[in-house]
Amino acid sequence: MTSLPIPLRTAGAAVAAVLLAGLLAIVPGAQGRASASAGPTGPPLSVPQQTLDDAVRCTPDVHPGSGKKVVVLVGGVGFDPADAWGWGYSRALVRDGYGVCEVTVLDHGRGDATIGAEYVVNAVRYAQARSGQKVNIVAHSAGPALSLWALRFWPDVAASVDDMISLAGPIHGAHPVNLICSVGFCPVLAHQLSMGSRFTAALNREPISPSVSVTSIFTLFDEGIQPAREVSSYPGAANIALQDHCPGRLVEHVGLMYDAATYRLALDALSHPGPAVPARTPNLCEGITLPGFDIATFVPSFTQGAIKYLGILGQPSLPAEPALPRYAEQG
């Protein structure tokens, strides 16, 4: 059994207090530079192009001459890139030889998921155009729903992605979110990420292109994304419950972003054709945190992100899920 150090257990308890109130999602991002050219297929984007481009930031080695694979990091509500990834995945992926791009969704990802997905569409196009090759996505919490929506409805985006790696994704919604909506407070994102919503039905009505290898990693100890095995599994994906391979591993929702075993599985998917294969990963369950994890940065970053996450309480409460865009109603 793996136990967390005292600071991480304390942070985990704080996470639980937040997540039991609903869904957690994390979105990295910042300062894009060049414009990404629009793909030939998929619906037009409603967000202005300059706004989308300003929401993307890539490391300097994302260019054709570097020879490095590129990972686009996507999250959801509350956390900017430094808060979400700067103490973990960004550092580890750069250390392991990957180029990294991050995307910021409008209003910290607290609004309409169909609009948030447009930021992912543009980030993938931007990263692909800048690198000259297919790119990969690693997404956490609500980020997988946004990413799969982008892959589902924009064929050029699906053609530009090799691996899609979901960490604790409410791909079919999440039961605690339904409970939130049942008592009255329900912003648009909560409606959309409820089990049985029109959004999740449209997302899962048809599979994304088989050219994209999907790995979905989730923890049975998640505070907010439950029932984890049911809502985080995606048809045709490598659906990996962490505790099936590392019994008793004490990892909760945010913990998947610093967990060593989860990172090894993500690297396995990124470094091989197809999705992750746990049996192919040596020493899968050893250690606690991913390489380069900086707890001194994590603690204040988590605090700042949690404060912004709680801003979802200020979102308008809607009596019902809003209508989907026409392209999703038809597809």
List keywords for this structure.
Lipase, 7 strands, 15 helices, Rossmann fold, AB_hydrolase_fold, globular, disordered N terminus, alpha/beta, 11% strand, 7-stranded mixed β-sheet, Stereospecific_Lipase, 331 residues, single chain
Walk me through this protein's architecture:
It contains 15 helices and seven strands. With 331 residues, it is α/β, with parallel strands linked by helices. It has one domain: Rossmann fold, CATH 3.40.50. The protein has a seven-stranded mixed β-sheet with strand order 1-3-2-4-5-6-7, with helices on both faces. α1 runs parallel beside α14 and α5 (113-131) packs across α6 (142-153). The radius of gyration is 18 Å and the shape is globular. The model is unreliable at 1-39 (pLDDT under 50). This is Lipase.
Task: Give the secondary structure arrangement, pairings included.
Layout: H1 6-19, H2 49-54, E1 56-58, E2 70-74, H3 81-86, H4 89-95, E3 99-103, H5 113-131, E4 135-140, H6 142-153, H7 155-159, E5 161-167, H8 175-182, H9 188-192, H10 198-205, E6 213-218, H11 228-232, E7 238-241, H12 242-245, H13 260-271, H14 295-309, H15 326-330
Parallel strand pairs: 2-3, 2-4, 4-5, 5-6, 6-7
Antiparallel strand pairs: 1-3
Helix pairs in contact: 1-14, 5-6
